[in-house]
DNA sequence: GGCATAGGGGATAAAATTATCCCTATGCAA
DNA sequence: TTGCATAGGGATAATTTTATCCCCTATGCC
């Protein structure tokens, strides 16, 4: 999301959404914040597969895109809270729809995704 | 989508959807196919920013994930048609919701995305 | 001083995704 | 014979996205 070599396509709604929602952890972040997990450390615990650093970066982008707002409390140790903006809230039903489709088709998706075309499997000599 | 070094996360619906829908042109491909643009050359004309090769690759993945089906006619010059499967059809409302959110917020999104933090602008010497 | 907490971020490496280049094949038209 | 339209794909380069490493802030407490 820095200086791009390849120009952005911002032709249609899908392009625009992609720019703010593409990002491995972004939808999950929005979702968990919506569920009340507002602090960075909580989010990290909710998404242990992502490093703290990565979550920070993606949170920053969500903030830049005005989907979430950040409150920094002047206390020690530091305390930070993220909240959905109204704009971000309006995206929740969309994310909900995506997640629900995934949940509804969980088994099928899982097997499709894990099904790799059989090739060069050791032990399957053809000679 | 080949041999991955980093293991897949398939924890929740969002992860699963991501695996089949992440891909710069995939949602657009599904959408255009739904609208009746079924042949590769038509799709290419609809999405001129993507190369023919790239569309082929993504179409193949959509096919592998059973969201579309492919019909090859034994004619010359070659003729191919893609159609949404029932599974792919079920995804259309979701894509519709995403695109609609983007369309509804087009102006705001466009300015947010294009708004880059001012830094090192030439002509703004600070000394 | 050393440690714990809670949060941040620069630099760089690694991985994944996209794009580019160039080749295949067929029949018809100029 | 070259050119065009149709469709497909291997190999590799370029770009973008994620991940890793390591260090930083500030305060209170033992």
Write a structural description.
The structure is a homodimer of 127-residue chains. Chain A has 127 residues and is mainly alpha-helical. The first copy, chain A, has a single domain (13-109), classed as Orthogonal Bundle (Arc Repressor Mutant, subunit A), CATH 1.10.10.10. Chain A has seven helices and two strands. In chain A, strands 1-2 form a two-stranded antiparallel ribbon. In chain A, a hairpin with a 5-residue loop joins strand 1 and strand 2. The first copy, chain A, is globular. Chain A binds chain B through residues 8-20, 22, 24, 27-28, 31, 49, 64-66, 87, 90-91, 93-95, 97-106, 108-110, 112-113, 117, and chain B through 8-10, 12-22, 24, 27-28, 31, 49, 64-66, 87, 90-91, 93-95, 97-106, 108-110, 112-113, 115, 117. The first copy, chain A, binds a DNA duplex (30 and 30 nucleotides) through helix 4.
